[in-house]
Amino acid sequence: MQIKHFFRPITFIVYFFALTLTASLSWAQFYFAGEDGYRLWLKYDELQDQTRKKHYQKQLQSVLVEGQSPTSEVIRQELSYALRGLLGKALPNKTSIANHQLIVGTPQNSSLIAELQLAELADLGKEGYLIRKQKVRGKTVTVIAANTDIGALYGTFHFLRLLQTQQSIDQVSIVSAPKMDLRVLNHWDNLDRHVERGYAGQSIWDWHKLPDYQEQRYYDYARANASIGINGTVLNNVNADPLILTPQYLEKAAALADIFRPYGIKVYLSVKFSSPQLIGGLKTSDPLNPEVQRWWQEKAKEIYSIIPDFGGFLVKANSEGQPGPGDFGRSHAEGANMLADALASHGGVVMWRAFVYANEKNEERSKQAYSEFKPLDGQFRNNVLVQVKNGPIDFQPREPFSPLFGAMPKTPLMMEFQITLEYLGFSTHAVYLGTLFKEVLDSDTYAKGAGSSVAKVIDGSLFNNNISGIAGVANIGTDRNWTGHIILQSNWYVFGRLAWDHQLSAREIADEWVRMTLSNDAEVVATVTDMMMDSREITVNYMTPLGLHHIMDEGHHYGPGPWIKDLGRDDWTSVYYHRASPSGIGFDRSPSGVNAVEQYFPPVRDLYASPETIPEEFLLWFHHVSWDYKTRSGRTLWDELVHRYYQGAADVTAMKNTWNSLQGKIDPYQFRQVQMALGIQEKEAYWWRNACVLYFQSFSKKPIPTGLEKPQGTLEEYMKLKFPHAPGQGK
Ligand code: GCW
What is the predicted pLDDT for the residue at 95? Predict the structure, then answer.
């Protein structure tokens, strides 16, 4: 549509004049036509490979979607929309049963599927599905079968993915069921539409116009989530506004829940622990007070009366100024259990965050969540999940896994990943998080000996928990492309795919995403996938190599700020974390220091305890070493650090050039979006490099290793930069 617009005479004349007037600018700068990213990975453009297309067409001449439920209707619509797009052909409306080539349904809604007596369904639960070539009344057809309509919807999206990625469907035989129960997005969205740590526009929830005005975007959000198996959404920020629990807002949340229901997505809300006082007129919010308990029970009843499948509450308590049970001398378990009791009879859960650190505790920040929560293991109700950030500090470009994973066998621990790039360059860096997520999920906790991966802790299989879950802090906003630029859509995508199956590799998910979003062309797929796979390590190198962490600018967290000191609390500053001095750099969390390693199981504990045995990427996280310390490359620590900063920045330039080589091979608008982002990323990578190297040099007093250029700019210049209006700040 936009291409047509470009050729309208008036548009053309305007472009022509603009072009002659600014002859020095390249043509590309006026070429805005193309794919704007709104359709995400559900593009369904007509397949270019004619042989494949014909092959699919022959096998999909008629499709039968069984069932009358809203979900069956969604399946019907999605299939007909997708097949019309991919195959360039509308499906016939009606054909006789005998002629169907694809049948979608459940044993309950389809006598054809019931007749097949598919034994595998017994193991597929409420959300799993099978896709198989199968004889149905003597004819070979493709069957997508599940125990529920939602399972059939997931199966349908999987089937469409096969077509979108141009795989053979001749011998298709797939059974799939999610490894985790709750696969949830956390929106840090405020009711005024500001998104905390959001870099892609405003909140997509237009609270003011809800419940009556229902944006098309809500439906497309639901489709996108269902296509990757996400089955829950927490609508509002964990720094919660108590108004969310007032009737006015509950009605709005209910409207969204109604839209999402057919897509298998439950709505959850973040709640403020002091709500009984703030909106309930009570004098206390003490969880052991019967009036407070009654208030929450009534509130739960009220919610379920308008959202019958409401998922439950997410709570940030006694953390960064939020109220909590600690205000009344009660434990996190007592607080969580009170809410859990209110929700239990309705089938709701409490997701209680373990992101806590308090000044008064006088304990090193990385150790506090463990110290506070581990003793509570076994005290939580069985509808409570404790939600733990992937690392012990806060979503840094690289962190070791949180030692809580494996340490609370009697409590289901939910993973909290951050999909939005708060600490990895906001929305203009191209960082694929698949590799970060996998690194954490595959880490071995050794909680029950070798093979006790973080993934097995959170999917409940290691300790046989009754419920399991994973949450991702969303990177979604009102930007036309949802996430700031196209590549960052892949982070939403990979979160969902790994939540469904953490055994998939980051590379295969990237490959799949590229095919669905950018192109099936082999060169594009290989080039972009490689780029994505390297992107996170590159970012670690130019931001926080060798285990450095939390050295960004304060408040907004945009750009480098290793010099940040003297804030309200030490553990909000950078100098607290890097501890650079004339003698060396790094945080001694080994037994000779604050002994954070003691929170890990052996052999991790022992491996991390010594600079000689620790994986080098965590060196400065756990150790303070001298500038002359010999790293594994043979270089001194100083030289290695500088080399990594330089390598990281140079790799962004290389990444930009690689992307540029794809011009003409992918959609021009997609191309341009990422090209612009990479331009910004390149500038910022050099900014990080120069600022950090100059700053650390003021301690090491050592020269830039030979062969490397001098950093541009001066430390003073970098330190003066201020960004009062950087987006996404907490307020
Ligand atoms: O990462 C920090 C963020 C805060 C956030 C907090 C949390 C929602 O800077 O903006 O607050 O973590 O996870 O609670």
Answer: 53
